[in-house]
Design brief:
Elements lengths: L4 E8 L10 E9 L2 E9 L2 H22 L1 E8 L2 E8 L3 E6 L9 E5 L6 E4 L4 E5 L6 E5 L1 H9 L1
Antiparallel strand pairs: 1-2, 2-3, 4-5, 4-10, 5-6, 6-7, 8-9, 9-10
Length: 149
Amino acid sequence: MFVLCRLVHSGSHRGSPAHGSELLFSTRSGTGRGVEAHVFRVETHWDLSSWTRALVQGVHTAAELITEVSIGCTLNRQDVRLTLHFENGFTVTREPDKASGGAVLYRYPYEKLKMSADDGVRNLCLDFGGPEGEMFSLREEELQKVWIR
């Protein structure tokens, strides 16, 4: 979601990889134009394992170096700031103003995230196991930060 590239699928397109089946991996990458999906084919299980490991380790290293990403968005028609911290997880705060400051609305560790989804344009859903997922609408000026940071 908030990284330049993420591994979406690894293995055979028919389920579990069998000998001789086509081996694929796919990625979703952030660009200045939004999210792009790419599918790659490899020849051997060793190649698949190597590419998968390299992508996962690379994204993990990038997240560790960046440490924190904070974006302005809207949640339930309220201006909020969604912060993802490498170690501390997700924090949603009110956008600071003179009256209320930046009060914390939600704070969840990564382990609480059950599912995430986005439309590749501006809407982001994070489900932490409550009755319904939290639907964020990213602000226009923040989109560039999210997709190509």
